[in-house]
Amino acid sequence: MTKITAVITGIQGYVPDYILTNSELENMVDTNDEWITSRTGIKERRILKGENQGTSDLATRAIEGLLEKTNTNAEEIDLIICATTTPDMLVASTGCIIADKIGAKNAFAYDLMAACSGFLYALTTASKFIETETYKKVIVVGADKMSSIIDYTDRATCIIFGDGAGAVLLEPNKEGLGVQDSILKSDGAGREFLHMKAGGSIKPASHETVDAREHYVFQDGQPVFKAAVKNMADVSEEIMLRNNLSAEKIAWLVPHQANKRIIDATARRMGIGDEKVMLNIEKYGNTTSGTIPLCLWDYENQLKRGDNLILAAFGGGFTWGAIYLKWL
Ligand code: UT7
Fold it and tell me: Do residues 8 and 178 touch, judged by C-beta distance below 8 A?
């Protein structure tokens, strides 16, 4: 019997129009373009403006483009998994809202929360539904309106994040293309260094939590940076070894875009040159669940059938992981 694999048959991204530049940030907090560029590699990020605009709007725009591009009717979709850290609301799920907005009447949908590793977790989960022949058309969307949870008075955090979404269509393949392997990891002890203090069940919203600015992302950058460098490089090396992949055999590293220095360290450990590393952090910043599909979207024209790709991420939780896939 031929093995069924889950292959990406379409990719589409969406970023909002508004560009928040380093120079605009200079007017908001005590920072400068030189510091941001040298410490992170970021020049600008996109921000979703306007009333009643949330993560589902970013995701919906990406998915509408995806459906058009792949000539797919929304009613053909079996499942939508939305990786997000910034759901439209806690009840109902953003996946359900997206399904309603795009008219995916026959799909069931849910959210998956794994911070910056969300897209990898969701892609791995979705691929199992395809490999087991449970479903034939699954959309995985990574979408975050990070500007909704960022404190624009905290200079160490606000310079990093931006808004955006990327979506892929996953379908069965009998030629051995698509998702080959994945390694996913987590360590909840890391929550000390990256979390949002209030708004959840431990500390529901109150006047006090708002006054204390506890509804924003708290990040202690240094320990997160160290853990990201170590774990993203470790897991990328592990997936290479497990699949007998030398650096020469890898066409592209598709890294989560949190900090160019973390990306460089991962590529160095894998022995991969800069020319094989997807990078768009300079124009979008860290869009959390959106970074990896937005990279694939930006580099789509350079991807060839059979290319070996390593996707790698590290984020809040802590969560991290790597996926090995062959491009269609
Ligand atoms: O994607 C989810 C996972 N998140 C990450 O992977 C992020 C990991 N962390 C990082 O990328 C980095 O830690 C940051 C970019 C957040 C910060 O860079 P850093 O090189 O670790 O800086 P730092 O926090 O150690 O701060 C160094 C100095 C401090 O000043 P002093 O104490 O040395 O006088 C900060 O106050 O830089 C100062 N600083 C800034 N200066 C200008 C912090 N933020 C800024 C700023 N502009 N925006």
Answer: yes
- C-alpha span between 59 and 192 (Å, rounded): 29
The yes-or-no verdict on residue 68 having pLDDT over 80 is yes
pTM: 0.97
Nearest atom of ligand 1 to the alpha carbon of 160: 15
Which of 82, 116, 158, 295 is catalytic? The answer is: 116
The verdict on whether 116 is a catalytic residue reads yes
pLDDT digits (tens, 9 = 90+) for 21-60: 999 999 999 999 999 999 999 999 999 999 999 999 999 9
Ligand 1, atom nearest to 286 Cα = 1
- The distance from CA 266 to its chain's CA centroid, rounded to whole angstroms, is 17
Q: What token pair was written down for 170?
A: 């996953």
Separation of alpha carbons 107 and 109, rounded Å: 6
Instruction: Give the chain's domains with CATH numbers.
Output: 5-176 (3.40.47.10), 180-326 (3.40.47.10)
Is residue 118 a contact partner of residue 98, using CB atoms and an 8 Å limit?
no
**Distance between CA atoms of residues 324 and 161, nearest Å:** 26
